[in-house]
Amino acid sequence: MIYPTAGSMLYMLLELITAFLFGGLLLGLHRKIIARIQGRPGPPIVQHLIHTFKFYIKELTIPETSSMPLYVAIVLALSAVWVLAFLVGPVLLGPFSIIIMCYAVHKVSEHGIGLASGSPYTKMGSTRAVLSATAEMPLIVAPALVFFKTHTLVLSDIINYQILHGSLFMDLPLAAIATFILLLSKTPFNPFGIVWGKDIVSGYKTEHFGVIRGVMMFGEILGFFVLLWCFLTIFFGGIFNTPLTIMLTMIGVTIILGFICALTPMIAPYHSVMIQWIFALLALINVLFI
Amino acid sequence: MKIQKQTKNRILAVLTTLPILIGIILNTPLVISVAILTFFVPPSTYYLGLVLMALPKSKKEEDEREKITFTGY
Question: pTM (2 decimals)?
């Protein structure tokens, strides 16, 4: 009999499946909240998961204009990047720098997905992915500040530091807000979501249907889970350090994200970048408190 | 000899799922487990999806598939 001991592959696989299911439910909840605020009944909370599974049994169509190997491989790369980030982060509590690297590669994947299909809408989406990559300054500023405060970027050490000295949110509130803005920018229907804006149909995702869309959604669900977990662990690790408290807080943060996404319109691409830069620069004020 | 698309997808689904199963059975070291999961989970879900996609959903659909494909007017 094989038992899922910590660190074994079965254990990691079970955690991966759990995170995927929980992340899918969170995104379903997010969509439900947006609908209720807008006065609609909205889809059931499990709809996002059903949507993902549905794509697995739908016919795969590949446009004639696409670059076939890249069209499939880049989506697999996107999912692989988030699987790695999940294993390094929530499962192994390893170096946060690897998660940052995964995030950077995910931006490149978004660009590649847009270019691979050959559609003008997806190309526009991929161009915006590059533009929005310049807005990811909080991803550099926040870890830098955390490093100067804790002298480590290993997640288990950051949690231990917070258990001893209190949550980093109290020391680095502006860095936490900047990271929250970054998290918001990765949430569906967010005001900074210029990459998949409806003015360009669905951005880089316009031409991806069938199984390949299912794989893409699998990666995105994991990505949302990882970013949410990282935000809570890095800034509130002193308070929320058990699976139950983290899960409950994830639900709370998703509700807040839902409110923001429902009440704010999508902003213009350049404004989106500018606002995220402002928050990153504000976070630098926290240097004074280190 | 040309392999049918469905057969090729089934072979690839087995080939990409097999390392994960072997890793679970042999209880591979941590680094190898992480590498296997990172490299094989996305393609295995993709190829399993392709195999699932090609399965007939109902008897009616199965009968439909057996009909001669429409070749144009």
Answer: 0.88
